[in-house]
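Translate sequence into C-alpha coordinates.
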Amino acid sequence: MKQIPISLIAALALSAPLFGAEPPKMSADELVAKNIEAKGGADAVHALQSLKLTGKLLVNQGQIALAYTELRKRPNEVRVDASLQGMTQVNATDGNEGWKISPFFGRKDPEKMSADDTKALWEDSEIDGPLVDWKEKGSTVESLGTEDVDGTQAYKLKVTRKNGDVTFVYLDPDHFLEIRTFTQRMQNGAQTEIETDLSDYEKVNNVYVPFSMESGRKGDPDKQKLIIDKAEGNVAVDDATFRFPAGAGK
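Result follows.
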Protein backbone atom coordinates (compact mmCIF):
# COMPACT_ATOMS: atom_id res chain seq x y z
CA MET A 1 0.00 0.00 0.00
CA LYS A 2 1.31 3.43 -0.92
CA GLN A 3 2.37 5.43 2.11
CA ILE A 4 0.88 8.91 2.58
CA PRO A 5 3.59 11.53 3.11
CA ILE A 6 3.86 12.70 6.72
CA SER A 7 3.86 16.32 5.51
CA LEU A 8 0.41 15.83 3.93
CA ILE A 9 -0.96 14.20 7.08
CA ALA A 10 0.31 17.13 9.14
CA ALA A 11 -1.25 19.64 6.75
CA LEU A 12 -4.62 17.88 6.90
CA ALA A 13 -4.46 17.71 10.68
CA LEU A 14 -3.78 21.41 10.92
CA SER A 15 -6.57 22.32 8.52
CA ALA A 16 -9.19 19.95 9.99
CA PRO A 17 -10.52 22.35 12.63
CA LEU A 18 -11.29 24.86 9.88
CA PHE A 19 -13.92 22.67 8.25
CA GLY A 20 -17.37 23.58 9.55
CA ALA A 21 -15.89 26.29 11.77
CA GLU A 22 -18.08 29.16 12.90
CA PRO A 23 -17.42 32.42 11.06
CA PRO A 24 -16.15 35.29 13.24
CA LYS A 25 -18.75 37.09 15.33
CA MET A 26 -20.01 40.40 13.99
CA SER A 27 -22.48 42.99 15.22
CA ALA A 28 -25.64 43.87 13.32
CA ASP A 29 -24.12 47.17 12.17
CA GLU A 30 -21.00 45.41 10.91
CA LEU A 31 -23.05 42.84 8.98
CA VAL A 32 -25.28 45.49 7.41
CA ALA A 33 -22.19 47.46 6.35
CA LYS A 34 -20.66 44.29 4.87
CA ASN A 35 -23.91 43.55 3.01
CA ILE A 36 -24.06 47.04 1.49
CA GLU A 37 -20.40 46.85 0.50
CA ALA A 38 -20.95 43.42 -1.07
CA LYS A 39 -23.84 44.70 -3.15
CA GLY A 40 -21.68 47.42 -4.66
CA GLY A 41 -21.42 50.11 -2.01
CA ALA A 42 -23.85 52.70 -0.69
CA ASP A 43 -23.39 55.10 -3.61
CA ALA A 44 -24.15 52.46 -6.25
CA VAL A 45 -27.07 51.05 -4.26
CA HIS A 46 -28.72 54.45 -3.82
CA ALA A 47 -28.07 55.38 -7.46
CA LEU A 48 -30.21 52.44 -8.58
CA GLN A 49 -33.59 54.18 -8.63
CA SER A 50 -35.59 51.67 -10.67
CA LEU A 51 -35.26 48.05 -11.70
CA LYS A 52 -36.92 46.00 -14.43
CA LEU A 53 -36.70 42.21 -14.25
CA THR A 54 -37.90 39.84 -16.97
CA GLY A 55 -37.82 36.07 -16.95
CA LYS A 56 -40.03 33.12 -16.11
CA LEU A 57 -41.97 32.00 -13.07
CA LEU A 58 -42.08 28.24 -12.54
CA VAL A 59 -45.04 26.85 -10.58
CA ASN A 60 -46.66 23.46 -9.98
CA GLN A 61 -43.26 21.90 -9.26
CA GLY A 62 -41.82 23.48 -12.39
CA GLN A 63 -44.39 22.01 -14.76
CA ILE A 64 -45.89 25.40 -15.66
CA ALA A 65 -43.79 28.40 -16.77
CA LEU A 66 -45.29 31.90 -16.85
CA ALA A 67 -43.70 34.88 -18.60
CA TYR A 68 -42.66 37.26 -15.83
CA THR A 69 -42.04 41.01 -15.64
CA GLU A 70 -41.38 42.99 -12.47
CA LEU A 71 -40.92 46.73 -12.17
CA ARG A 72 -39.63 48.37 -8.99
CA LYS A 73 -39.22 52.09 -8.44
CA ARG A 74 -38.14 54.02 -5.39
CA PRO A 75 -39.32 54.75 -2.86
CA ASN A 76 -41.86 51.90 -2.70
CA GLU A 77 -43.60 51.18 -6.00
CA VAL A 78 -43.75 47.74 -7.60
CA ARG A 79 -45.70 45.93 -10.29
CA VAL A 80 -45.55 42.22 -11.16
CA ASP A 81 -47.06 40.77 -14.37
CA ALA A 82 -47.21 36.99 -14.88
CA SER A 83 -48.65 35.78 -18.20
CA LEU A 84 -49.81 32.44 -19.59
CA GLN A 85 -51.98 31.57 -22.59
CA GLY A 86 -53.03 35.16 -23.24
CA MET A 87 -53.96 35.92 -19.62
CA THR A 88 -51.94 38.18 -17.32
CA GLN A 89 -52.01 38.20 -13.54
CA VAL A 90 -51.12 41.65 -12.13
CA ASN A 91 -50.12 42.62 -8.59
CA ALA A 92 -49.09 46.22 -7.98
CA THR A 93 -48.81 49.03 -5.49
CA ASP A 94 -48.03 52.73 -5.86
CA GLY A 95 -46.75 52.77 -2.29
CA ASN A 96 -50.12 53.72 -0.84
CA GLU A 97 -52.58 51.07 -1.95
CA GLY A 98 -52.32 47.70 -3.66
CA TRP A 99 -54.39 46.27 -6.47
CA LYS A 100 -54.56 43.15 -8.61
CA ILE A 101 -56.02 41.50 -11.68
CA SER A 102 -56.62 37.76 -11.26
CA PRO A 103 -57.75 36.22 -14.58
CA PHE A 104 -56.63 32.72 -13.53
CA PHE A 105 -59.29 32.92 -10.80
CA GLY A 106 -61.95 34.30 -13.13
CA ARG A 107 -61.44 37.96 -12.14
CA LYS A 108 -60.49 40.02 -15.18
CA ASP A 109 -61.16 43.47 -13.73
CA PRO A 110 -58.76 45.38 -11.44
CA GLU A 111 -59.52 44.98 -7.72
CA LYS A 112 -58.12 46.85 -4.77
CA MET A 113 -56.21 44.82 -2.19
CA SER A 114 -56.45 45.08 1.57
CA ALA A 115 -53.54 46.57 3.51
CA ASP A 116 -52.69 43.09 4.82
CA ASP A 117 -52.63 41.58 1.34
CA THR A 118 -50.41 44.44 0.13
CA LYS A 119 -47.68 43.77 2.72
CA ALA A 120 -45.76 41.35 0.52
CA LEU A 121 -45.78 43.88 -2.32
CA TRP A 122 -44.44 46.63 -0.08
CA GLU A 123 -41.57 44.33 0.85
CA ASP A 124 -40.99 43.39 -2.80
CA SER A 125 -40.68 47.07 -3.70
CA GLU A 126 -37.38 47.24 -1.80
CA ILE A 127 -34.81 47.28 -4.59
CA ASP A 128 -31.98 46.49 -2.18
CA GLY A 129 -33.70 44.36 0.47
CA PRO A 130 -34.68 44.98 4.10
CA LEU A 131 -31.19 45.78 5.48
CA VAL A 132 -30.31 48.87 3.45
CA ASP A 133 -31.53 52.08 5.15
CA TRP A 134 -33.29 50.06 7.84
CA LYS A 135 -33.30 53.00 10.27
CA GLU A 136 -34.97 55.29 7.73
CA LYS A 137 -37.61 52.58 7.16
CA GLY A 138 -38.40 52.49 10.88
CA SER A 139 -37.10 48.94 11.33
CA THR A 140 -34.86 47.43 13.98
CA VAL A 141 -32.06 44.97 13.22
CA GLU A 142 -30.58 42.40 15.59
CA SER A 143 -27.73 39.94 15.04
CA LEU A 144 -28.63 36.38 16.05
CA GLY A 145 -25.26 34.75 15.41
CA THR A 146 -25.15 32.02 12.78
CA GLU A 147 -27.44 29.23 11.58
CA ASP A 148 -27.03 26.35 9.17
CA VAL A 149 -28.49 27.02 5.72
CA ASP A 150 -28.10 23.91 3.58
CA GLY A 151 -24.62 23.24 4.95
CA THR A 152 -23.48 26.86 5.20
CA GLN A 153 -23.07 28.57 8.57
CA ALA A 154 -24.83 31.77 7.54
CA TYR A 155 -25.04 34.97 9.53
CA LYS A 156 -28.59 35.47 10.82
CA LEU A 157 -30.17 38.89 11.25
CA LYS A 158 -33.62 39.66 12.60
CA VAL A 159 -35.34 42.64 10.96
CA THR A 160 -38.46 43.87 12.76
CA ARG A 161 -40.42 46.27 10.59
CA LYS A 162 -42.37 49.20 11.96
CA ASN A 163 -45.64 47.31 11.36
CA GLY A 164 -44.41 44.47 13.60
CA ASP A 165 -43.72 41.94 10.84
CA VAL A 166 -40.39 40.13 11.04
CA THR A 167 -37.91 39.05 8.38
CA PHE A 168 -34.93 36.87 9.21
CA VAL A 169 -32.09 37.54 6.78
CA TYR A 170 -29.32 34.97 6.24
CA LEU A 171 -26.03 36.23 4.79
CA ASP A 172 -23.36 34.10 3.14
CA PRO A 173 -20.34 34.18 5.51
CA ASP A 174 -17.87 34.72 2.67
CA HIS A 175 -19.68 37.15 0.38
CA PHE A 176 -22.22 38.75 2.79
CA LEU A 177 -25.06 38.62 0.25
CA GLU A 178 -28.50 37.28 1.15
CA ILE A 179 -28.90 33.56 0.54
CA ARG A 180 -32.21 33.17 2.38
CA THR A 181 -34.96 35.23 3.95
CA PHE A 182 -37.71 33.97 6.22
CA THR A 183 -40.63 36.35 6.72
CA GLN A 184 -43.35 36.17 9.35
CA ARG A 185 -46.23 38.57 8.73
CA MET A 186 -49.78 38.91 10.02
CA GLN A 187 -52.38 38.66 7.26
CA ASN A 188 -56.10 38.66 7.90
CA GLY A 189 -55.66 37.68 11.54
CA ALA A 190 -53.27 34.77 10.91
CA GLN A 191 -49.49 34.53 10.77
CA THR A 192 -48.04 33.72 7.35
CA GLU A 193 -44.50 32.39 6.99
CA ILE A 194 -42.63 32.58 3.68
CA GLU A 195 -39.12 31.27 3.01
CA THR A 196 -37.15 32.54 0.02
CA ASP A 197 -33.78 31.29 -1.23
CA LEU A 198 -31.73 33.71 -3.34
CA SER A 199 -28.80 32.90 -5.62
CA ASP A 200 -27.10 33.55 -8.98
CA TYR A 201 -26.20 37.16 -8.27
CA GLU A 202 -25.28 39.37 -11.22
CA LYS A 203 -24.38 43.04 -11.48
CA VAL A 204 -27.01 45.52 -12.62
CA ASN A 205 -25.81 49.13 -12.75
CA ASN A 206 -22.94 48.15 -10.44
CA VAL A 207 -25.27 46.54 -7.90
CA TYR A 208 -25.48 42.79 -7.32
CA VAL A 209 -29.02 41.46 -7.82
CA PRO A 210 -30.21 37.84 -7.40
CA PHE A 211 -31.26 36.21 -10.67
CA SER A 212 -32.77 33.11 -9.03
CA MET A 213 -35.36 33.12 -6.23
CA GLU A 214 -37.31 30.17 -4.86
CA SER A 215 -40.16 31.02 -2.52
CA GLY A 216 -42.95 29.36 -0.58
CA ARG A 217 -44.03 28.12 2.80
CA LYS A 218 -41.24 26.52 4.82
CA GLY A 219 -41.05 22.80 4.09
CA ASP A 220 -43.47 23.03 1.15
CA PRO A 221 -42.08 20.97 -1.77
CA ASP A 222 -44.13 22.99 -4.26
CA LYS A 223 -42.33 26.34 -4.03
CA GLN A 224 -42.46 28.75 -6.93
CA LYS A 225 -39.16 29.56 -8.63
CA LEU A 226 -38.32 32.80 -10.39
CA ILE A 227 -35.53 32.77 -12.96
CA ILE A 228 -34.45 36.17 -14.27
CA ASP A 229 -33.23 36.28 -17.87
CA LYS A 230 -32.68 40.04 -18.10
CA ALA A 231 -32.38 42.91 -15.63
CA GLU A 232 -32.26 46.62 -16.45
CA GLY A 233 -31.44 49.42 -14.03
CA ASN A 234 -32.75 52.98 -13.96
CA VAL A 235 -35.37 52.41 -16.64
CA ALA A 236 -37.89 55.19 -17.20
CA VAL A 237 -41.20 54.13 -15.63
CA ASP A 238 -44.37 56.23 -15.54
CA ASP A 239 -45.83 56.30 -12.01
CA ALA A 240 -49.23 55.58 -13.55
CA THR A 241 -47.97 52.04 -14.21
CA PHE A 242 -48.25 51.32 -10.49
CA ARG A 243 -51.56 53.08 -9.80
CA PHE A 244 -55.00 51.51 -9.71
CA PRO A 245 -56.39 52.01 -13.23
CA ALA A 246 -58.50 55.14 -13.53
CA GLY A 247 -62.19 54.43 -13.91
CA ALA A 248 -61.89 50.83 -12.73
CA GLY A 249 -64.29 49.54 -10.12
CA LYS A 250 -63.31 48.28 -6.69
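Note: The chain has one domain: 41-242.
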